[in-house]
Amino acid sequence: MGEPYSLGGAWSYPREDFTLVETGYAVRLPDRRAGRRTASNEIFDPDQLMGAHRTLQLPVILRVRNLANGREIRVRVNDRGPMQPGRILGLSARAAALLGLAGEGAIPVRIAVDEAPSRALAGALPNREAAPLEMAAAPSGAVQREALPPPPGARQGAGRSAPGGAVPLAREEFAAPELPPNKLPEQVAEYPVGPIRILIEAGTFFQPAQARRQAQGLAWAGAWVEPFGIGRDMQYRVRLGPFPSLAAADQTLAQLRRGGLPDPKLLID
């Protein structure tokens, strides 16, 4: 998946995830040069539906929905980014335009991995970790076969027999997953929109005492603890907000980072 790297003053740790669903803000990629190589060694084209993500496996297909206007498209993510902390996705110029992102601003988005085509892309990649072992087939001798008559009272099937009297077994066919095209079609879906709350998630803990301790240290920012999950899977996340604007959330995010918080996340709830 790639080694950890630092970008925009924040460390990222790439990992494979075919079930990721994430909310946050997307921006347009500033580099508009066509023909350059992306992190996955593909050719970048600002006129195609391409994008950049910090940690997902590359390439991957995402469903990206603008939560402000309900538009949703599919994007081929094949690069690392975006540079700005607090942004979860960088978009090519064409992808940004279809979603309604103009200029250098940001839009609230929900992103979700499109699992089937993303798994097909992963399966088509060469495996550099291990070379296939060459195995010689075991020698086999001649096999003598004899067709025996059916026992008394038995009826022979109507199907056609193979040579030697054996009935061939039906083999189940497994279709290989279909690879998505390199150039994704410009299909825009429309969904209803709802209220948008801008939050910051400071951390997630399995122990409520640890979550309360962090929230107390962030009392100046109005932090609170929210439990989620069921039974042994119960966890506790420390959240801040909601914020009246993206600018206000960015200001608090910068304060948290300056205070040494390693990975605060700006999200939409």
Estimate nothing, just give the exact number of structural domains.
Answer: 2
Do you know the CATH topology of the largest domain? Barwin-like endoglucanases
Q: Could you state the CATH homologous superfamily of the largest domain?
A: RlpA-like domain
- Span between termini: 29 Å
**Rg computed from alpha carbons, rounded to a whole number of angstroms:** 27 Å
What are the segments in which pLDDT stays under 50 over at least 5 consecutive residues?
128-138, 157-162
Number of beta strands: 13
% residues in beta strands: 25-35%
What is the string of helix and strand elements? EEEEEEEHEHEEHEEHE
Topology:
Blueprint: E1 5-7, E2 10-12, E3 21-28, E4 50-52, E5 60-66, E6 71-79, E7 89-91, H1 93-99, E8 106-113, H2 115-124, E9 189-190, E10 198-205, H3 208-217, E11 224-228, E12 235-243, H4 246-258, E13 265-268
Parallel strand pairs: 3-7, 4-6
Antiparallel strand pairs: 1-2, 3-8, 4-7, 5-6, 5-8, 6-9, 10-12, 10-13, 11-12
Quick overview of this protein structure:
By secondary structure, the chain is α+β, with helices and mostly antiparallel strands. It is 15% helix and 27% strand.
Descriptors:
alpha+beta, Barwin-like endoglucanases, 6-stranded mixed β-barrel, 4-stranded antiparallel β-sheet, 27% strand, 269 residues, 13 strands, 2 domains, 4 helices, Alpha-Beta Plaits
How does this model look, in words?
A hairpin with a 2-residue loop joins strand 1 (5-7) and strand 2 (10-12). The chain has two domains: 1-124 and 180-192, Barwin-like endoglucanases (Beta Barrel), CATH 2.40.40; 197-269, Alpha-Beta Plaits, CATH 3.30.70. It is built from four helices and 13 strands. It has a six-stranded mixed β-barrel with strand order 3-7-4-6-5-8. It has a four-stranded antiparallel beta sheet with strand order 11-12-10-13, covered by helices on one side. The chain is an alpha+beta fold and 269 residues long.
